[in-house]
Design a protein that fits this description.
The complex is a heterodimer of chains A (115) and B (114). Chain A has strands spanning 3-5, 10-14, 19-21, 24-26, 32-39, 46-52, 60-61, 64-69, 74-79, 88-96, 104-105, 109-114. Chain A has 115 residues and is mainly beta. In chain A, strand 10 (88-96) and strand 11 (104-105) form a beta hairpin. Chain B is mostly beta strands. Helix content of chain B is 0%, strand content 55%. Chain B has strands at residues 4-7, 10-13, 19-25, 32-38, 45-51, 57-58, 67-73, 76-81, 90-99, 102-105, 109-113. In chain B, strands 2, 4, 5, 6, 9, 10 and 11 form a seven-stranded mixed beta sheet that branches. A four-stranded antiparallel beta sheet of chain B has the order 1-3-8-7, with no helix packed on it. Classes of the chains: A mainly beta (115), B mainly beta (114).
Chain lengths: 115, 114
């Protein structure tokens, strides 16, 4: 079974600074997808960034980028130029490359952005 | 992306009563939808996979007779919490499965059982 581990229950960062959230996973599959979701106080799940395992290039979405290390099964999220609106719970998630398969979530990291 | 709605957003019910939560896939026909439960400051826990036109698949430890799931159409899945008790108070989230690389989440329903 696949597992996703986020070892940082809480992180904090100063506004405009950079922060990295860690995520490791375990799988025997070779093709899969990895995600970072953001859950603000409204509790609506928002997709931040997505990585296909077959792609070597790290995904980037504006201020958000990932460091995907397939051999190490590591998938960290870097947030640059942190903004107050980035404060939220962040979940790392894994999905198999199979239609109808479900996401496996990590425990989450609560990010605080200090002004 | 696809839009998923949930209704109600917040419901308060008395212990022993049943409550139904609706999840609608507004612009996408979803043959598969997922129901999650989330306790405060915790991760999402998958309860069941809702399959259009067939029985739902429940995760281990989830009582299928307590959490009734119906997926009668490609746009609507419902979760009914039967004989609710205070320990069922939680945040319930549904999502549809557009593809392995894309899932869309509803805004969630807060259930409070008094």
């Amino acid at each position: 079974a696949q597992t996703v581990t986020q070892s940082q229950p809480e992180m904090s960062v100063q506004e405009a600074e950079t922060v990295t959230l860690s995520c490791t996973y375990d799988t025997s599959e070779s093709d899969y997808y990895l995600f970072w979701y953001k859950q603000p106080p409204s509790r609506q799940m928002i997709l931040v960034i997505r990585q296909e395992a077959y792609k070597q290039q790290n995904a980037t979405e504006n201020r958000f980028s990932v460091n995907f290390q397939k051999a190490a099964k590591s998938f960290s999220l870097k947030i640059s130029d942190s903004q107050l609106g980035d404060a939220a719970m962040y979940f790392c998630a894994y999905n198999r490359e199979t239609s109808g398969s479900r996401l496996t979530f990590g425990e989450g990291t609560q990010l605080t952005v200090n002004p | 992306g696809a839009v998923v709605s949930q209704h109600p957003s917040w419901v308060i019910c008395k212990s022993g009563t049943s409550v139904k939560i609706e999840c609608r896939s507004l612009d996408f026909q979803a043959t598969t939808m997922f129901w999650y439960r989330q306790f405060p400051k915790q991760s999402l826990m998958l309860m069941a996979t809702s399959n259009e036109g067939s029985k739902a698949t429940y995760e281990q430890g989830v009582e299928k007779d307590k959490f009734l799931i119906n997926h009668a159409s490609l746009t609507l899945s419902t979760l009914t919490v039967t004989s609710a008790h205070p320990e069922d108070s939680s945040f319930y989230i549904c999502s549809n499965s557009g593809s392995p690389y894309e899932q869309y989440f509803g805004p969630g329903t807060r259930l409070t059982v008094t």
